[in-house]
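Dear colleagues,

I hope this message finds you well. In preparation for our joint manuscript, I am sending the Phosphogluconate dehydratase (Hoeflea phototrophica) sequence together with its predicted structure, so that both groups work from identical material. I would be grateful if you could confirm receipt.
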Amino acid sequence: MTVAPSIAAVTARIIERSKPSRETYLERLSHAASQGPHRSTLSCGNLAHGFAACGPTDKANLSADVVPNLGIITAYNDMLSAHQPFETYPELIRKAAREAGGVAQVAGGVPAMCDGVTQGQPGMELSLFSRDVIAMAAAVGLSHNMFDAAVYLGVCDKIVPGLLIAALTFGHLPTVFIPAGPMTTGLSNDEKTRIRQLYAEGKIGRAELLDSESKSYHGPGTCTFYGTANSNQMLMEIMGLHTPGASFINPGTPLRDALTTEAAKRALAITALGNEFTPIGEMIDERSIVNGVVGLHATGGSTNHTMHLVAMARAAGIVLTWQDISELSDAVPLLARVYPNGPADVNHFHAAGGLNFLIAELLSQGMLHEDVRTVWGKGLTAYAVEAKLGENGTVKRVPVSRESGDPKVVTTADKPFQPNGGVKMLTGNMGKAVIKISAVKPERFVVEAPARVFSDQNEMQAAFKAGSLTGDFVAVVRFQGPKANGMPELHKLTPSLGVLQDRGQAIALVTDGRMSGASGKVPAAIHVTPEAKDGGPIAKIRDGDMIRLDAVAGTLEVLVPAHEFDAREPATADLSRNEWGIGRELFARLRDNAGPADEGASVLY
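The corresponding structure tokens are as follows:
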């Protein structure tokens, strides 16, 4: 299959730009892989410690060093609905490994926090940096050098990006990601949004709101809206790191267990001890990264991945930029409507054909690189399938239907919901920013209005409750970047902004913070770089300055004469309240050393 010229051009540019760092990365990977299964390099004392707790059969197998050992990195905890199903996975994986003639051990656990729990709370200021902590924690688990391959159990926002950074750092090891699946459908997203806005307006109380939220988030599995967690699952599959069709099968079902068993056996089949050696660092290349970006645009995925994809790519020596992401957005149509881009949830999306239908459609239009390596073998066509439960309890796959099960949820390239992707880059005299437009009505793509400036989201919430946010305005919420306070999501502002927009006001949000995968119907220029803490232009904005956000032209401008704007001193803010409490004091060095958002907001690269 021939890839479209526009996709090929961006890919070629990434390959050329990445040559020096990619070559160095692959040289290091080759050296590590050439050492063979690493238990042979351990002393008898090392090895005895490594299998001391194993049963006699596993101990004998590891002593002989002739069977593959599978390392399990798990993000299990039972507070997070998305990760609670992982409690039973290790035993299932160990059993599958023995059936395949191998051994499996839990190599380590990594922290997993929920942005839904910490939304608007001090703990959210740890969220972004938890990605890099997760990568380091996974590295500790794998540092024992006992493993021939690894499987990663993770789903949510920063967990999967952190795990993938770790996996690529150990790029000589074959790797399979194993998902847990979304919870079953609860209260409809439209109803949930309606209740939230009623609460924001003071028309209902906390009891009614909590009842609504509890009916929305009601059981084990991923939240069913298409935010960062479900965007993660899309990425892992379209980049070939899941087994085909695995992403959106509900937890606690026979098919889910069959897919987990299959994934463990597949990880053992692709080690250096077999004939299909597939180290992740070679498997994931520039084409795989481009496929991930294309999937993000076609599904209207999370804006968080404008940072995570950049950071994940760098872990493999690949230099991806916001400009690449923006140009791919212009080339890829939006083919899915999943909340917040439409009323459907991910279960409806999957039932309508879902990701595997979209892979088939995108391949047919030359919008994906088909000739990539995956954990399943060569070629992405193997992912244009539907996974089903076979009669013997194993997974069987059938070609995906070429007809959408619901054209209002999933469509074809000749009838797109919009001609370009859901995420774009904005540039101008305020710096660079990202905007998600897949849920924004076209008549709101351009907003020109006076600024209302706030130094945190609580200030803006107070102004909303006081009734002072009248008329058209652009809310500028600054000192929310990585170095200021860890770049928390500002999704708490969504109901208030939605209320004002529904009243007929022309409004937009401009911030150096995040709005998450749940960015919705209000135009929001987020991840503004340079951030205010670094003295970026956003720190020079004053109340009343006219700001023009133009998602059509891709610009973000403050309409102040250049000589006047340049002469202004950047504002400062007292950030001492963000430096301690709920563990924030432990993250001071990470805040101080965080990179800019357009380079992944990482402390690692």
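For the figure legend, we might mention the following. Residues 423-599 form a domain with the Glucose Oxidase; domain 1 fold (CATH 3.50.30.80). The first strand starts at residue 69 and ends at 74.

With kind regards,
E.M.
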